[in-house]
Amino acid sequence: MSTTIGDKTVEVVTSQGPAVSEVAVAAADSFLPVAGLQYLIDFVHSLTGLNWWASIALTTIFIRLATIPLLIDQLRATTKLNLMRPRLEQLKQEMQNMEADPEVLREGQKRMMALFHEYGVTPFSQLKGLFIQGPIFISFFLAFRNKAEKVPSFQNGGAPWFTDLTTPDSMLILPILTAMTFWITVERNMQEGLEGNPVAQTMKTYSRILAVIAIPVMMSFPKALFCYWLTSHIFSLTYGLAIRRPEVQSLLNLPEIPEPPPTASQPPFSIFEAVKKDTTIESEPSLSTETSKVSDRSISSSSILKQRLKSLEKHVKGKKKQISQRST
To answer: Which terms under GO biological process does the entry name (predicted)?
Structure first.
């Protein structure tokens, strides 16, 4: 019996040996996050016995599940920013009316910072999604490009209709599916926490254009990358549909956004624009000096004109007196 177990162990180690060496070679010259991701995918592949495409999809789901708390925190921050937007717009209008006065502008910026502190957010809170998804996407992209070049088993690790994961999809099925799932996700989930904000419509417009442009750009990518992208987009769509349900929002204690009244469209508020205006005023004192000079010149010109009018008036009065004296 011990001999049988020993033979089976040798068979397992021998069968897993080439795959482990492939991943080790591929991860040897990679950055630490990229190498760690390659080992994680290989661990899922070895543990479950799934093909590479399914292992990639399963790893993607695990990583996206791990980022859900961060995504919920970003959604809370974005919702709070949208709730405070009317007050920010009112403050922006006041600062624009008094933008020639640096003191008033600085006071407005202090009120703005106090408003952010009141809601517990910062101007950068809505960028959390980029900081989360950006490094993950780059790590997956580099990992799959590396594996496609250095892991021979990727050549037969796909599904029946796309067996080779190292080559582009000549039928363009995967790029089109990826663009479609991205577009559907944009249409359904882009306004999470941004209801009534004009920025949301602008973001949606550019995302639609990106979905169309992405198809020719992705034509040269290996099929392995689409196993991640498609899974990630489907996950995002499912997450967005779930988070919009009232019972889920109540469970997560997300603030409710009231329906905005119909008002005239205004440009979106930008704290950076206000700071830039303050810097411009401080860095260009010559502008105010020049303005004061022009004002002084106009004042002096008006005083000279008044003096001339008075002298002319006196001269006319003197002429009238002389005429009246002669007539008498």
So the answer is: protein insertion into mitochondrial inner membrane from matrix
Distance, in Å, from the CA atom of 54 to the CA atom of 18, rounded to the nearest integer, reads 20
Question: For the whole model, what pTM was predicted?
Answer: 0.66
- The answer for residues whose C-beta is within 8 angstroms of residue 39's C-beta and 6 or more apart is 23, 27
pLDDT (tens digit per residue) in 241-252: 888 888 888 888
What is each CA distance from 116 to 83, 90, 109, 120, 196, in whole angstroms? 11, 14, 11, 6, 19
Token digits of residue 322: 């002389």
184 residue type, one letter: I
Residues in the chain: 328
How far is residue 27's CA from residue 25's CA, in Å, rounded to a whole number? 6
CB proximity list for 181: less than 8 A, separation 6 or greater: 230, 233, 234, 237
Q: Which residue intervals of the chain are DSSP H helices?
A: 2-28, 32-48, 52-66, 68-83, 85-97, 102-119, 128-150, 173-189, 198-218, 223-243, 246-251, 271-283, 285-327
Encoding tokens for residue 94? 């006041």
The dihedrals phi and psi of 275, each to the nearest 5 degrees, come to -60, -40
Sorting pLDDT into bands at 50, 70 and 90, what band is 177? very high
Residue labelled with tokens 């941004």: 194
Answer yes or no: are the C-beta atoms of 67 and 132 closer than 8 Å: yes
pLDDT tens, position by position, 15-37: 444 445 677 777 777 888 899 99
Q: For 71-90, what is each residue's pLDDT tens digit?
A: 888 888 888 887 888 888 88
Q: By the 8 A CB rule, do 223 and 167 touch?
A: yes
Would you state the structure tokens that stand for residue 106, as one six-digit string?
A: 């600085």
HSE-up of residue 270 (Cα within 13 Å, Cβ side): 11
DSSP per residue, 249-266: HHHTTPPPPPPPP-----
